[in-house]
Amino acid sequence: MTVSRLRHIPGINVDKMGNAADALGDPDMLRLENLDTDIAPPRAALEATRVAVDADEANSYLPFLGIHALREAAVARIKTDTGVAYDPEGECIVSAGGLSGILNVLLAILEPGDEVIITDPAYAGLLNRIRLAGGVPRLVPLKVAEGGWRLDLEALAASRSDKTRAVLTMSPSMPSGIVHNLEEWQAICDLVRQTGAWLVHDAAMERILYTDAPMLHPLQFPDMRERTVTVGSVSKEYRMIGWRVGWIVGPRELMNDVGLVSLSNVVCQVGIGMPGAAAALTTDDDGVAEATARWRARRDLILDELADLPCVRPDGGWSLLIDTAALDLPPERASALLLDKGRIAATAMTGWGAPDQAGRYLRLVFANEPRARLAGIRERFRAAWGM
């Protein structure tokens, strides 16, 4: 590495696996390596975007912090979900996608050496953004219980220190698919209140739930409004990956700093993407429930077919993990065999947490392949792994 800030930032592996699968050009290849989906965005979003392409006002840097219609829609969505109100002009900023929003918030709150508590496994892109902003990820392991994921509450309590500056949450989380329950959220919010840390909540998948439990958001807990920053996007729930539009919502005194970072980073958002994003958030037919049902059916098919393998059930999101280390098969080797012999592209979780935690797993994304193509997936695994 030529600069020190990149010294502890590995790649995410998804790009390499995607490139390898593209190079093979095999139409029978199951593309389970990347967070894509084949389910169409809301019709209203498509129509608004087509209109925006021809609109002069959409071909502009202005307004720098996002169009009012989208900022208003984002805070309205949060109020509907949590009952907490925000000022769309002073407490909401539109970002160029959710992860750009996360980085902007981290740059606004972290001093070099500050610690950010985050679960393990976690998306490597989140871990790398913590490091880019000068922070240090403090990993809290997830544990497998009754076939699914749970947060290790004792490890969470032990993770706090005098350097704790933020807790970065995502529920459902990627890549694990954990959905935090009431007890876990209470413990997270208690830690935030006790330490005076910020809670940075990645809300990209919060309605993609496969349980009957209601959606929980940290703003639903006492005294969390002034400590919580919510970062959302249209990429996952609304199936609008290519629009690169997200939003940051938080208390006014912090949002001034986030705005300065935003103006110094990406400057502004995708002009022709924002009207479509606003339409997605305000249409009566956003398709989230229907899409979630289809994603759940795909998850269930994979879990049924791979029931004899050490899969961990996700309770939400787009992906599930297989503990290939339990099969004495390193995830990188498991991935290579699947690509070569099983015609499956899947990503090893190297760099997505600690080597003995996240580093045990291989990820399968089930959001981008229909059930008809996923049927028979167990035979592909058998051909690749001989088991």
Outline the fold blueprint:
Elements: H1 14-24, E1 30-31, H2 43-53, H3 68-82, E2 92-95, H4 98-109, E3 115-120, H5 124-132, E4 136-145, E5 148-151, H6 153-158, E6 164-170, H7 182-195, E7 198-202, E8 228-233, E9 246-249, H8 252-264, H9 274-282, H10 288-305, E10 311-312, E11 319-323, H11 331-342, E12 344-345, E13 347-348, E14 361-365, H12 371-374, H13 377-385
Parallel strand pairs: 1-12, 3-4, 3-6, 6-7, 7-8
Antiparallel strand pairs: 2-9, 4-5, 8-9, 10-11, 11-14, 13-14
Helix pairs in contact: 2-9, 3-9, 4-5, 4-8, 11-13
Structure described in brief:
With 387 residues, this protein is of the alpha/beta class. It is 37% helix and 17% strand. The protein has helices spanning 14-24, 43-53, 68-82, 98-109, 124-132, 153-158, 182-195, 252-264, 274-282, 288-305, 331-342, 371-374, 377-385; strands at 30-31, 92-95, 115-120, 136-145, 148-151, 164-170, 198-202, 228-233, 246-249, 311-312, 319-323, 344-345, 347-348, 361-365.
Task: Give an overview in words.
This protein has 13 helices and 14 strands. The mean pLDDT is 97. The two termini are 40 Å apart. Helix 4 (98-109) crosses helix 8 (252-264) and helix 11 crosses helix 13. Helices cover 37% and strands 17% of the residues.
Keywords:
8-stranded mixed β-sheet; 387 residues; 13 helices; alpha/beta; 37% helix; 4-stranded antiparallel β-sheet
State mean pLDDT (0 to 100 scale).
Answer: 97
**Class inferred from helices and paired strands:** alpha/beta
The helix fraction, in percent, is 25-40%
Coarse morphology: globular
The stretches of 5 or more residues where confidence is low (pLDDT under 50) are: none
Oligomer: single chain
Q: Can you list the strand order of the major beta sheet?
A: 2-9-8-7-6-3-4-5
